[in-house]
Write a structure and sequence with these properties.
single chain; alpha/beta; FAD/NAD(P)-binding domain; 12 helices; about 35% helix
Length: about 375
């Protein structure tokens, strides 16, 4: 059935049911605005991700009213306050934060919960519904042939976003790569307890070790890196051998990550972008869940404000500003001329380690952090 778009009626179509799409749909539905969300997969579904939710993201979720504090605790597998830093096998430092823990969430269950929350608020959520094309500027065509009419369109459809291509006319070639294994705790000769970041294994990237409740997310990511996917796989394989783990015993999962392609306007006109589609992944930490949630709600707020983007996007301290800064500061951490200095700073300076934790936990801007470190 067609939706009547005459006489001032409006409806938003959100493409993609990850955190960005669910947050956007929930915000619109909570404001009483008609919204339909089309997710191509049936939920829950696997997502390549370390599963780290920053303390800022958790506070944003509970503060928005989308999730209660009790529900947030129920979605959390584990919390971490301690991280160890490594460079090419050398232990640099272990740092324990006095507060602001990061949470580990199971992405399949976490994403499904947020999608259900959007539906319970009134969003028309359709899973297993793939948007294949657009027959005109206000009509999307699904894989089943259904035509979905809309006045606003939100692309929350990932790194290789169809909606972003609709705006730009081409697919972004600026992508990174993320790979990970989920390894049962009992498979480790010495199971890790805290977060670990291993630099120097991949150009402009790192290997992560993220202990959950019963398993460890062991993976690697590279953003804006000359390393090929096969280079990253080999680096991860060598790391696992050092830990007496056998890559062949575990299933490898991989996916592209947006790299250096932030859209600071979150789209154009009545077409919006959010999450990975907008390139809102931190280029230093690789974190993207919190930015997806924030950008999704920002897109919804822009629509509710009558498409007056400047009123919403100019807010100080937004995730867009943080991601923009990370594009520059990543060079201080990974650049050929500055990498050695950065590694020594982590090793020798508690302040630098604390600053890195502030980045991961989302409690500080890059400019403020680096001013503090180098003052």
């Amino acid at each position: 059935m067609f939706y009547d778009l005459r006489c001032g009626n409006e409806r938003t179509l959100v493409v993609g049911g990850g955190p960005a799409g669910s947050a956007c749909a929930w915000r619109l539905a909570a404001a009483g605005r008609p919204v339909i969300l089309a997710e191509k997969e049936n939920m829950p579904r696997r997502k390549v991700c370390g599963g780290i939710l920053s303390s800022r993201a958790a506070a944003f979720l509970t503060g928005s009213g989308m999730v209660t504090a009790e529900e947030m605790d129920g979605l959390t597998l584990r919390t971490h306050l301690t991280i160890s830093f490594w460079d090419r096998g050398e232990h640099l430092r272990t740092y324990t934060a006095p507060g602001r823990p990061v949470r580990i969430v199971p992405r399949a269950g976490f994403d499904a919960f947020l999608l259900e929350r959007a539906a319970s608020c009134g969003a028309d959520v359709r899973t297993g519904c793939r948007v294949e094309s657009f027959s005109d500027p206000r009509t999307a065509v699904t894989g089943s042939g259904e035509r979905l009419r809309f006045t606003h369109l939100v692309g929350a459809d990932g790194c290789v976003s169809m909606v972003r291509r609709l705006i730009s006319g081409r697919r972004s070639r600026k992508t990174g790569m993320g790979l990970h294994y989920d390894i049962p705790m009992e498979d480790f000769p010495s199971p890790p307890v805290d977060l670990e970041v291993h630099f120097g294994r991949i150009p402009y990237g790192y290997i992560w070790v993220i202990p959950g409740r019963e398993s460890v997310n062991l993976g690697a990511g590279a953003l804006g890196s000359p390393a090929s996917p096969s280079d990253i796989v080999k680096a991860l394989g060598r790391f696992m051998e050092e830990k007496d783990l056998h890559a062949g015993d575990h299933e490898l999962h991989g996916a592209p990550i947006p790299s250096l392609n932030l859209d600071r306007s979150l789209g154009k006109g009545k077409v919006y972008l959010a999450g990975d589609a907008a390139g809102t992944v931190d280029q230093v930490s690789g974190e993207g869940i919190g930015q997806a949630l924030e950008s999704g709600m920002m897109a919804a707020d822009c629509i509710s404000a009558g498409d007056r983007r400047e009123e919403v996007l100019a807010a100080p301290g937004s995730c867009l500003e943080s991601v923009r800064q990370s594009v520059f500061y990543r060079h201080l951490l990974h650049g050929r001329l500055t990498r050695g200095t950065a590694m020594r700073a982590i090793r020798d300076s508690e302040v630098f380690a604390e600053a890195y934790w502030d980045i991961i936990s989302g409690n500080g801007s890059y400019s403020g952090i680096f001013l503090r470190v180098f003052s």
